[in-house]
Amino acid sequence: MNTSTSSSPISSGHGATPSLPRIAVLATGGTIAGAAADATNTSGYQAGVVGVDQLLAAVPALSTVARIAPEQIASVDSKDMTLPLWTTLAQRINTLLASDAVDGVVVTHGTDTLEETAYLLHLTVKSDKPVVLTAAMRPASALSADGPLNLLNAVTVAAHVAGHAEAHPAGRGQGVLVAFNNRIHSARDVVKTSTYAVDAFQSPEIGALGWVQDGRVEFQRGVVRAHTLASEFAIGAQWPHVEIVASYAGVSRIAVDALVAAGVRGIVVAGTGNGSIHQALQQALAEAASRGIAVVRSSRVGSGHVMRNGAAADDALGFVSAGSLNPYKARVLLMLALAAGVTEAVALQKVFDTY
């Protein structure tokens, strides 16, 4: 993993006009920085091998949108995202946004765990300046690579929000955003929905926040749930051990018993339908909850919400409903809540109802 934490002021470089917004572009690797030997190969490539300077050089139009300060935070395939790297990224973003020399941040990321990183930042960034994540489904070496346009659009969104806060207040205070395939999504809502398509990211429950195309940015709705400056959570040195299990036909309690024995602090269950849980798994989870382990019910379905006291008797079993958060985002929120000292089921349910 290559890291850089340069804190030098942003210059007007690349021919950019000094009055343009100052945007830091933090690269973490991923398919957007991937390369293959054959331009027709969109699956057998190595992620994270193209450096941030090369990514920027492929999009000369960026100089007409913003003054760019590039940093290579990491060079990883996002399937291998780690908790320490989350800590590094969140801390670096907060440091940059606390400076008057930075108007916003764009993060290039792999698609596999982008939705998790975006939600983590949505809850831990302490600024109302724009933070926009973007990625690509095709490597930089591919025919019709989608990364350059996604990067241009992400910087365009960040620059628009940073430079037009008074004229277009709908864009400010929306928390962390994801710009992908001309759409703008909230970090809380967005999920990856395809293994190959360039429109792989959607907000299936309530739709995108808006769109960006040919330099035009439009927000069509606002974010309601608490985030960023209204969030009680912050990145700390310790991450509580939280894992995910799934419910399915014929599932046993082996995984839950092993996790309890390993000393986990929380378990998120990807239930069927409305968060329903196989009786064998439910019994094991109820025993875990009785031992003080936080248990959160989510759903493996992909959209919709898990009703409290719906498919399982949450009050009696000590379970928490994840609402509309998928299991992976529910894990992020549960880790942050446990790290903040929120451990009782009633208090945790309030957290999930708030964020």
From TrEMBL:
User: One Pfam family, short name please?
Assistant: Asparaginase_C
Where in the numbering of this chain does the L-asparaginase N-terminal domain appear?
Answer: 22-222
What SMART domains does its record include?
Asparaginase (SM00870)
CDD domains found in the cross-reference section: L-asparaginase_II
Q: Which residues form the active site?
A: 31, 111
The record's keywords, sorted A to Z, are: Hydrolase
Q: Which GO terms describe its molecular function?
A: asparaginase activity
One GO biological process term is:
asparagine metabolic process
Domain Asparaginase/glutaminase C-terminal: where? 241-352
Annotated InterPro entries: AsnASE_II, Asp/glu_Ase-like_sf, Asparaginase/glutaminase-like, Asparaginase/glutaminase_AS1, Asparaginase/glutaminase_AS2, Asparaginase_C, L-asparaginase_C, L-asparaginase_N
Task: Give the top-rank taxon of the lineage listed in the UniProt record for this protein.
Answer: Bacteria
Where, by residue number, does substrate bind?
78, 111-112
Q: Which NCBIfam families does the record cross-reference, listed alphabetically?
A: asnASE_II
UniProt cross-references to PANTHER family, sorted A to Z: 60 KDA LYSOPHOSPHOLIPASE, L-ASPARAGINASE
Family recorded in the similarity comment: Belongs to the asparaginase 1 family.
User: What is the protein name for this chain?
Assistant: L-asparaginase
Protein source organism: Paraburkholderia susongensis
